[in-house]
Amino acid sequence: MKTVAVIGLLACAMVGCSALPTAGPTAGDVRSQEVRDNQTQFDLVDINDNVVAALAAGPRESFHSRFKKYGKPPQPRIGVGDGVVVSIWEAAGGGLFGSSPTDHVTAGSRSVTIPEQLVGQDGGISVPFGGRVPAAGRLPVEVQHAIEERLAEKAIEPQVIVTITKSLTNSATVTGEVVAGARVPLSLKGDRLLDLIAAVGGARAPVYETFVRLSRDGATATIPMESLVAEPAENIYAQPGDVLTLVRLPQSFTAFGATGANAQIPFPSERMTLVEALAKAGGLQDLRADPAGVFLFRFEPRSIVDRLGRPQLATGPDGGSPIVYRLDLRDAKSYFLAQRFPIEDKDIIYVANADLNELQKFFTLLNTLTGPVITGIVVKNSSP
């Protein structure tokens, strides 16, 4: 009787405790905490086909979509600061640009090359006997015709060729922490974004950790380098004045609860699914995990929340709503859903302890406390 009384007193004391040691809330706790003090703390969403389809159809940054009005760049025009060389031919010797007093009796044409000059702030270049000729904003052939008109009454049937030797206008800039930055001249045939990256030596970071940010005409878009490589439509033509920035942004998710590893885990590739993330975290622990209590915590933007048909809580960063996705692995179909459910950077995956596990911990702790007492009583009663 004494033994039963002692055990009963210890059990009552333990039940009176506020909580047993635990790694986090049970699945029931998560559901019950969705609404607290008549306020919705987060939105609990069960993962199904409609949810996966809504996430797959979500907006995604795309160079092809953002800059779709741009195709192959036009023929380059001369700009302020460009280097220009002008070559002038005359149909016969003894003309304006002849270099010898006997040129007038020498058969054949004569030519002269004006040394390289930069297009001035006024947009013009200097041509002997022709004055300042407007060049900025013009094609080379247009400048050629303008010079020929200026010299028509002074030289013998002048023919002119204008060559751009250094173009600041018709170039793009590549910069970033994982690339050797440089200003890259654009070729006449047209250069795509990967051509620019290759021209500066390529990226010095894993492809799946590298993101490409394109700034053009006041608009900016960022996509993973892996998408730029894998999807030809994203490898659009570069335009004069483009700024291409390559940054290294390692992505990761965090796993807690009844998983094999409680840790921050980096992505091994650009895209990862929920089933891959659970495997990376060591899977569910057989003796602890509640297979119906796999939760993913994330702030979703307004567009995704609308697509899910859920209320806008707008309590997160940039007006996002806190969403808790729940996966029930007791249902075999959930494994197929987990193969399609995308993981995003900074997601939190939590696997709840099974309710029976909490009871088992209670009895384990009870045995730890009562075991020595029972042993002592047994020893005392068995002694002569």
Explain how this protein is built.
- The protein is α+β, with helices and mostly antiparallel strands and 384 residues long.
- It has helices at residues 2-15, 27-32, 49-56, 63-66, 140-151, 193-199, 225-230, 274-280, 302-308, 333-340, 355-382; strands at residues 35-36, 39-40, 43-46, 83-90, 110-118, 124-127, 131-134, 159-166, 171-176, 182-185, 210-216, 219-224, 243-248, 252-257, 263-266, 272-273, 289-300, 321-327, 342-343, 348-353.
- The strands form 6 sheets. The chain has a 6-stranded mixed sheet.
- Strand 6 and strand 7 (131-134) form a beta hairpin.
- Helix 1 (2-15) runs antiparallel to helix 11 (355-382).
- It is rod-shaped, with a radius of gyration of 37 Å.
- The relative contact order is 0.16.
Please describe the topology of this protein.
Elements: H1 2-15, H2 27-32, E1 35-36, E2 39-40, E3 43-46, H3 49-56, H4 63-66, E4 83-90, E5 110-118, E6 124-127, E7 131-134, H5 140-151, E8 159-166, E9 171-176, E10 182-185, H6 193-199, E11 210-216, E12 219-224, H7 225-230, E13 243-248, E14 252-257, E15 263-266, E16 272-273, H8 274-280, E17 289-300, H9 302-308, E18 321-327, H10 333-340, E19 342-343, E20 348-353, H11 355-382
